[in-house]
TrEMBL record:
UniProt xrefs under CDD domains: NADAR, Riboflavin_deaminase-reductase
EC top class, as a word: oxidoreductase
Reactions mediated catalytically: 5-amino-6-(5-phospho-D-ribosylamino)uracil + H2O = 5,6-diaminouracil + D-ribose 5-phosphate; 2,5-diamino-6-hydroxy-4-(5-phosphoribosylamino)-pyrimidine + H2O = 2,5,6-triamino-4-hydroxypyrimidine + D-ribose 5-phosphate
Species assigned in the record: Stephania japonica
Cross-referenced InterPro entries: CMP_dCMP_dom, Cytidine_deaminase-like, DHFR-like_dom_sf, Eubact_RibD, NADAR, RibD_C, RibDG_C, Riboflavin_Biosynth_HTPR
All residue ranges annotated as the CMP/dCMP-type deaminase domain in the record: 17-138
Molecular function terms, GO-annotated: 5-amino-6-(5-phosphoribosylamino)uracil reductase activity; diaminohydroxyphosphoribosylaminopyrimidine deaminase activity; hydrolase activity, hydrolyzing N-glycosyl compounds; NADP binding
Protein name: 5-amino-6-(5-phosphoribosylamino)uracil reductase
Length: 581
């Protein structure tokens, strides 16, 4: 390990131009799932011999096959002795080190990493693991600086900007988007705004929505424009729609209350118009109350929900406090070659309290692009976080200071698959082999695939059977959930009549299989003995713990029940024991 580390530190980058080119290719690959899956850490891998690419791959969705394994499978024997280029250090939250194992098993001799992983519990671990296996690992730009390397690193930062900002600021990455006329108006004095920008610009907006976890508007936008806020980009992912309204002075009839295809959340002041809150609930709209409604608290809530990227499509009244509170990171301004005039016509950003031009906010890394007749001006209000300094991990800190225990906390939270205990999630990429009603064993890609499909098992209807097959073949747990939930909303009559009474047992059987057939997961679960496990979803009050601990946390409970069984602390469980947890 020491010899490999020394070689990695002392060896110069042999051909930094080739390295930079291939890293940019890996970053471009990493971005290929945009719009088709919900935002996630973006990984791309290119395996090359000199300048010849022999294999490549990208992470399609959380829970799908890792980019490195795809590239290794594509390269075959040509990968032996080749160089692997990764836009970002692999992030193993599942205990199986699939990326590292794939690269080592393929016999690659060198790995070039664009940037280190920004999440502290993953930072440096894969690099260390690769070096301990004798591979030469170079991190781009740490041994040599040049313009071509700087440009390649910018590509790496850009493709994972949401993850970098989330890690550094503990809020999702937020883009403020607006369209305005050449004289700076977002609507006429009457409020009419359809359309300022061209059809080509509006198509780009659909792409931006597809890259976002959620789209935010204010009450004025709902009242004035009655937007749908759908992506309409041809991809599979649809962002959640969030309406911020202090008073809930909103129309009863609005496109945004249609939740048949995509969820709507209304964020409001605590206690506002309880009768209207009940009306929204009857429509299937989720209402979240805040003691004081403001952009910072809403973004912290979105952070807790695991969101990476938010698109703000609000008017100037909401844009101003969002900017002032520091939650807007990038601006996309579509400028149309039109003049509308009007002393009282609205502008894209309200009052920021600035009285001198020297106080104006300057954008960073500004770019200009012509889209049809319009000009898109984009830039960052805050620089992309530089997380180059290595933050000691919990284990390293414990070595330095023995008084610091690695696992002091009595409560362990898990939620997204990239969390430290992401392997506990039902969305983690661990396959199952489970018997069907005939006793034949079927392989399921994940617990979520199995769970969603079993909503429709036993229903004597062709559409239900087709749905099961569609779920089974879904490329990721996310897509399996999307198919199952969508069918449940559209055709509740196809859901098996006993689902509410058997769903806990279905989840339990899938979890037991997962933690029985994957030894490293079993070891991870047993390592938490003595700790309370909480699924940290703030909105799922059945499987998760809820925003303020009001959730039932059944997923955490089932895992603790399994842990007890594996440790021999309890007899074989039944559904009654789940309910008594």
């Amino acid at each position: 390990m020491a010899i490999a580390s020394t070689l990695a530190l002392k060896s110069p980058i042999l051909n930094h131009s080739t390295d930079a080119h291939q890293i940019r290719r890996a970053a471009d690959l990493a971005d290929k799932s945009a719009g088709f899956t919900s935002p996630h850490p973006n990984f791309g891998c290119v395996i090359a011999r000199d300048s010849n690419v022999v294999g490549e791959g990208f992470l399609y969705a959380q829970g799908a096959k890792c980019a490195e394994l795809q590239a290794v499978e594509a390269s075959g024997e040509l990968g032996r002795g080749a160089t692997a280029y990764l836009n970002m250090e692999p992030g193993d939250c599942h205990g199986d080190q699939a990326a590292v194992s794939a690269l080592v098993g393929a016999g690659v001799s060198r790995v070039v990493v664009g940037i280190r992983h920004p999440l502290q519990h993953l930072r440096g671990k894969a690099i260390q693991a690769l070096r301990s296996e004798g591979l030469q690992v170079d991190v781009l730009g740490e041994n040599l600086k040049s313009k071509v390397i700087e440009d390649a690193l910018k590509s790496c930062y850009a493709v994972n900007a949401p993850l970098l900002f989330r890690a550094a600021s503990r809020v999702p990455f937020s883009i403020l988007k607006y369209a305005m006329t050449l004289d700076g108006k977002i609507a006429a004095t009457s409020g009419h705004a359809s359309w300022i920008s061209s059809k080509q610009s509006r198509s780009r907006v659909f792409e931006l929505r597809g890259r976002s976890d959620a789209v935010i508007v204010g009450g004025n936008t709902v009242r004035r424009d009655d937007p749908r806020l759908t992506a309409r980009h041809g991809g599979g992912h649809l962002p959640v729609r969030i309406v911020m309204s202090q008073t809930l002075n909103l129309p009863e009839v609005a496109n945004i209350w249609d939740v048949s295809e995509v969820r709507t959340i209304v964020a409001t002041q605590r206690g506002a118009k309880k009768c209207f809150q009940k009306f929204l609930a009857s429509k299937g709209v989720e209402v979240v109350e805040f003691d004081i409604l403001n952009p910072r608290d809403v973004m912290e809530y979105c952070y807790d929900r695991g969101y990476l990227s938010i698109l703000w499509e609000c008017g100037g009244t909401l844009a101003a406090p969002a900017i002032s509170s520091g939650v807007i990171h990038q601006v996309f301004a579509f400028v149309a070659p039109k003049i509308i005039g009007g002393e009282h016509a609205p502008s894209p950003v309200g009052d920021l309290g600035m009285v001198e031009m020297s106080q104006a906010l300057n954008l960073i890394d500004v770019s200009y692009e012509q889209i049809g007749p319009d000009i898109l001006i984009s830039g960052f209000l805050q620089p992309v976080p530089d997380l180059t300094p290595v933050i000691p991990s919990v284990d390293e800190t414990s070595t330095i200071d023995p008084t610091v225990a690695p696992y002091e906390a009595s409560i362990i939270f898990f939620y997204k698959t990239w969390d430290k205990y992401g392997a506990f999630s039902n969305f983690s990429p661990h396959s199952l082999r489970m018997p069907d009603d005939n006793g034949d064993y079927i392989t399921w890609p994940s617990v979520e695939h199995y769970y969603q499909a079993h909503k429709f098992v036993g229903v004597n209807d062709r559409q239900a059977r087709d749905c099961i097959e569609q779920i089974k073949s879904a490329k990721s747990p996310e897509e399996a959930a999307r198919v199952g939930r969508s069918m449940q909303r559209k055709r509740p009559d196809l859901v098996r009549p006993d689902w509410e009474t058997v769903k806990i047992d279905v989840m339990y059987r899938a979890l037991k299989c997962k933690f029985s057939i994957h030894p490293h997961l079993n070891a991870m679960l047993l390592s938490t003995a003595g700790s309370v496990l909480v699924e940290a979803s703030p909105h799922d009050l059945f499987w998760g713990g809820g925003r303020e601990g009001e959730g039932l946390n059944y997923l955490g409970r089932l895992l603790m029940q399994l842990r007890s069984e594996f440790l021999g602390e309890s007899p074989k469980s039944s559904e009654n024991s789940y309910l008594s947890l």
